[in-house]
């Protein structure tokens, strides 16, 4: 290879490496990148291999570290070469030493040269002249995110240089070279070394020397807050004293100081909310002057407002005042209380005019808490204050908007819940609970993350509920608190004197809002019967003839319900605590009426025209996923009270269960519904039998399925629509397909013929129903070996469905056309069709892996020689099939994996998988025209490749494993010889 370009490293900030064209090097893994960074810091120096290994792999034993180093160097050479960098021109190594050549350039080396100029300077002027080049590369923290010992050592060297530079700036700020603003250099240094207290002290000295006291205090407050959150520590006394001097130098105010109450507890989360507040108020510029934090009681509005006010205090030159409205009952009391709270003097007039004269146009931030307390007449007072004081900005908390022109609102959500088991201890909700619990009981253990995750999830991340639960830890374990939440209002109480009365009991907090909306009590009780949310239309169906729109608006304003999303339709929900509160307001008879209203609303949902259609599209899955918990609750109620309604709901979900491969759950619902109604002739009972048969077919229970279809046909009334009878014939064909494709063809063709008149009357019947009959007939021809006829029929269906039919069927038959192409030997075309089918259904939330589709795609990829790609498809497919549990899908995956392993020379794995096929109830569906080797012939061929002992051991490898366990083996399989190769 010709000599390549030099390597350019960026070490300040996130580590990056690039060639001279600016193309970034993509490293194989993080350790290879760290190795490159380590060598780059010492470019031009030869380093002992054991030192490099110990530094980059500090947790490994010496021999393992050296082995990792050898592998890392090989990967580094490969990664450099892939970026057109000659590894031999950059990296030099022998048995004992390693080095980067001097043609490896970095911002750290440039910083080092400027640092050397600073050290060798013989006069202050000469030293100051080194600052521009020194700070030019100091853009961020050195090796950001790397917490290894050698990186810390390098940061210490940078720190010493920066301290020397800032000392010069503080002593002679006027002599700093042109183009360098002294305090900007201090800010740059603090950003590059954010955890260095000596650098912060030096920056504060620069602030004092340059008249930037207020800016220096902001820098101090940021450092102090990060130190408190990271280590629960306070800055050193010397740092605090420098901050006091900066505050004194930067204030010069005449207004009374901020009265924000000091925080006695740690603040958690809310980064996005604080960012939004800072966006409106952090610049002290025109724009939003009233921002109202909205949310249900106990969601943390006050704590968020105080934290925001504290962070903004220096930006407003400490003119941030807090006004608690808990004890105020009339809007007219606001101005007098505000003047007294701020401290303008006992004799100051209690008027807006006096307040305006005192404040003038200076920027002031007023935090007003609990405005819903005095909602009547409040808007006029707030508007008067804003008009009279042009520099005033108000950050308010309330359960309802104030409702004046220019008001901005920010709805405060609960604290985030753990997204995964690994995130539990880092989630804000768990950290808040543990912090408050340890104030009550310092001995509390945080070694049961699963219990903590369950607890905060059940409390929905509501800060008040978390704090009240934490208050119980003096007497109860986390497990006991969880159990006690079966009656949460008895458990979530506190007698703490610092809490306002409404925050001492969760019940009282909700009741406060409930009493604000008496006209919406009836709707709230009905909505408590819903699960997983509702839409406006569902609420109107549940309360026909009532003013649902107005009552729902009132509940939203009072934060008793909240919006959870909007796409085509706005969706609402309520917290579980509020739901339980609303249910508790009901008598037994009222609650029964609420559940009946809910069930009948769900029935109306299924009867609505857009939901009756079985046409599958982008909204079909999403709508049913959103409402599924409502369906479940309505079904359970109807099963006990109106069984026919339960049957209607179950019938309405049949195609959803089929599309989602939820056959087992669908079977359970349908069997319960069928057994609850009389077994008498009727279209609804007959169609329920057919739906049940579909579930049983999906579970490979063919005899039971056919028996249900025969019973369903007998239950169909004589005057039944022919299309409904055709559906039964189609379902029978799907069962017979597994044994006698030619007989199945006759059933499908008969089903199409029955629909002839219906299609003449309404062409859309073909899109909604008959397309599947014709496509199924084409697939039956494929199994029967009639490939040309199969391709013609399936492709005709696919082309017609492209014009706007059923997207699920479009995907299914596109995939089937790929099967035909595969058996015909056109592998590239087969793969294109398989990929196209996946692309159709994946946006709708369907997983092609659960259908076994990836196994068939893996076969054509294997036969094209791309074995690594095939293995990835098979691993993904195995994971999906484990959730589907269909015997046919098991067979498809085992056989496809065996073919891939055989092609790669992994003969024993192939034998183990093929031997396992014998234990499955159902083999893979094969076309009669498929001339590829059968599993039996493959086994026979493999027997000749292996000696008898190895063959026997391979056949026994998976003998005692369940099919699902074999799929897990496929997911975890790591081959020794498998790689992509040309076909």
Identify the notable features of this structure and list them briefly.
three-stranded mixed β-sheet, mainly alpha, 14 strands, single chain, 48 helices, 6% strand, 983 residues
What does this structure look like?
The chain has about 1000 residues and is mainly alpha-helical. The chain is about 60% helix and about 5% strand. It has 48 helices and 14 strands. Strands 8-9-10-7-11 form a five-stranded parallel beta sheet, with helices on both faces. It has a three-stranded mixed beta sheet with strand order 2-1-6. A hairpin with a 5-residue loop joins β1 and β2 (about 15-20). α33 (about 685-700) packs antiparallel against α34 and α39 packs antiparallel against α40 (about 805-825). The radius of gyration is 36 Å and the shape is flat. The model has no long low-confidence stretch (mean pLDDT about 85).
């Amino acid at each position: 290879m010709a000599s390549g370009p030099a390597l350019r490293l960026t070490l300040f900030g996130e580590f990056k490496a690039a060639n001279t064209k600016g193309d970034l090097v993509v490293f194989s893994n993080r350790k290879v990148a760290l190795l490159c960074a380590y060598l780059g810091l010492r470019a031009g120096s030869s380093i002992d291999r054991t030192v490099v290994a110990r530094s980059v792999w500090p947790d490994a034993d010496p021999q393992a570290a050296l082995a990792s180093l050898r592998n890392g160097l090989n990967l580094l050479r490969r990664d450099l070469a892939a970026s057109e960098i000659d590894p031999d021109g950059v990296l030099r190594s022998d048995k004992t030493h390693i080095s980067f050549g001097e043609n490896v350039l970095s911002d750290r080396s440039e910083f080092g040269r400027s640092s050397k100029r600073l050290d060798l300077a013989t006069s202050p002027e000469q030293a100051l002249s080194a600052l521009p080049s020194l700070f030019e590369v100091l853009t961020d923290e050195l090796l950001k995110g790397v917490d290894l010992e050698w990186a810390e050592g390098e940061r210490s060297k940078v720190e010493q240089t920066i301290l020397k530079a800032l000392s010069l700036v503080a002593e002679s700020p006027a002599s700093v070279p042109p183009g360098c603003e002294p305090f900007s250099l201090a800010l740059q240094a603090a950003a590059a070394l954010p955890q260095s207290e000596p650098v912060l002290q030096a920056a504060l000295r620069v602030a004092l020397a340059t008249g930037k006291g207020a800016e220096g205090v902001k820098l101090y407050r940021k450092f102090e807050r990060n130190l408190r959150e990271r280590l629960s520590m306070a800055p050193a006394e010397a740092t605090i004293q420098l901050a006091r001097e900066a505050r004194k130098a930067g204030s010069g105010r005449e207004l009374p100081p901020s009265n924000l109450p000091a925080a006695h507890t740690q603040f958690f989360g809310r980064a996005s909310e604080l960012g939004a507040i800072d966006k409106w108020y952090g610049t002290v510029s025109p724009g939003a002057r009233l921002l109202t934090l909205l949310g249900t009681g106990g969601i943390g509005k006050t704590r968020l407002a105080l934290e925001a006010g504290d962070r903004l205090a220096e930006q407003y030159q400490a003119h941030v005042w807090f006004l608690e409205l808990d004890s105020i009952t009339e809007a007219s009391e606001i101005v007098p209380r505000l003047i007294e709270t701020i401290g303008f003097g006992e004799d100051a007039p209690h008027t807006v005019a006096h307040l305006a004269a005192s404040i003038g146009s200076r920027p002031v931030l007023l935090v007003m808490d609990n405005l819903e307390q005095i909602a009547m007449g409040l808007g006029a007072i707030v508007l008067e204050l804003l008009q009279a004081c042009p520099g005033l900005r108000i950050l308010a908390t309330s359960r309802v908007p104030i409702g004046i022109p220019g008001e901005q609102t920010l709805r405060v959500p609960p604290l985030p819940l753990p997204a995964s088991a690994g995130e539990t201890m880092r989630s804000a909700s768990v950290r808040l609970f543990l912090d408050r619990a340890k104030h009550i009981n310092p001995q509390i253990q945080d070694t049961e993350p699963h219990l903590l995750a369950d607890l905060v999830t059940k409390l929905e991340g509501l800060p008040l509920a978390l704090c009240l639960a934490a208050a119980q830890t003096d007497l109860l374990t986390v497990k006991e608190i969880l159990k006690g939440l079966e009656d949460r209002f008895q458990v979530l109480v506190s007698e703490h004197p610092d809490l306002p009365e409404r925050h001492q009991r969760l019940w009282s907090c909700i009741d406060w809002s409930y009493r604000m909306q008496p006209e919406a009590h009836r709707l709230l009780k009905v909505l408590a019967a819903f699960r997983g949310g509702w839409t406006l239309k569902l609420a109107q169906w549940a309360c026909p003839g009532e003013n649902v729109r107005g009552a729902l608006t009132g509940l939203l304003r009072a934060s008793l319900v909240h919006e959870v999303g909007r796409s085509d339709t706005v969706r609402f929900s309520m917290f579980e605590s509020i739901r339980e509160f609303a249910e508790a307001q009901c008598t037994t008879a009222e609650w029964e009426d609420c559940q009946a209203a809910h069930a009948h609303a769900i029935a109306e949902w299924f009867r609505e025209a857009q939901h009756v259609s079985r046409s599958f599209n982008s909204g079909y899955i999403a709508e049913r996923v959103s409402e599924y918990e409502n369906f479940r609750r309505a079904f359970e109620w109807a099963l006990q009270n109106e069984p026919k309604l339960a049957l209607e709901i179950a019938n309405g979900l049949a195609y959803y269960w089929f599309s989602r491969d939820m056959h087992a759950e669908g079977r359970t619902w349908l069997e319960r519904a069928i057994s609850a109604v009389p077994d008498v002739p009727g279209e609804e009972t007959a169609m329920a039998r057919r739906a049940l048969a579909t579930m049983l077919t999906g579970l490979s229970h063919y005899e039971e399925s056919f028996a249900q279809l025969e019973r369903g046909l007998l239950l169909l009334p004589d005057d039944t629509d022919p299309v409904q009878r055709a559906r039964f014939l189609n379902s029978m064909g799907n069962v017979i397909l597994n044994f006698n494709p030619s007989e199945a063809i006759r059933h499908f063709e008969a089903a199409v013929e029955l629909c002839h008149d219906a299609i003449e009357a309404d062409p859309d019947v073909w899109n909604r129903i008959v397309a599947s009959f014709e496509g199924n007939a084409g697939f039956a021809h494929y199994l029967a070996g009639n490939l040309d006829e199969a391709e013609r029929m399936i492709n005709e269906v696919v082309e017609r469905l492209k014009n706007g039919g059923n997207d699920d069927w479009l995907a299914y038959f596109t995939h089937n056309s790929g099967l035909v192409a595969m058996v015909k030997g056109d592998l590239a075309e087969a793969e294109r069709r398989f990929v196209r089918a996946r692309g159709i259904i994946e946006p709708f939330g369907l997983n092609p892996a659960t259908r076994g589709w990836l196994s068939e795609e893996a076969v054509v990829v294997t036969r094209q020689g791309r074995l690594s790609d095939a293995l990835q498809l098979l691993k993904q497919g195995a994971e999906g099939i484990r959730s589907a549990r269909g015997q046919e899908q098991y067979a498809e995956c085992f056989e496809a994996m065996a073919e891939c392993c055989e092609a790669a020379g992994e003969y024993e794995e192939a034998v183990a998988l093929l031997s396992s096929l014998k234990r499955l109830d159902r083999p893979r569906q094969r076309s009669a025209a498929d001339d590829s080797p059968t599993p039996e012939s493959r086994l026979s061929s493999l027997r000749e490749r292996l000696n008898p002992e190895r063959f026997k051991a391979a056949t026994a490898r998976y003998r005692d494993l369940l099919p699902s366990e074999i799929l897990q083996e496929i997911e975890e399989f790591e081959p020794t010889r498998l790689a992509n190769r040309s076909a």
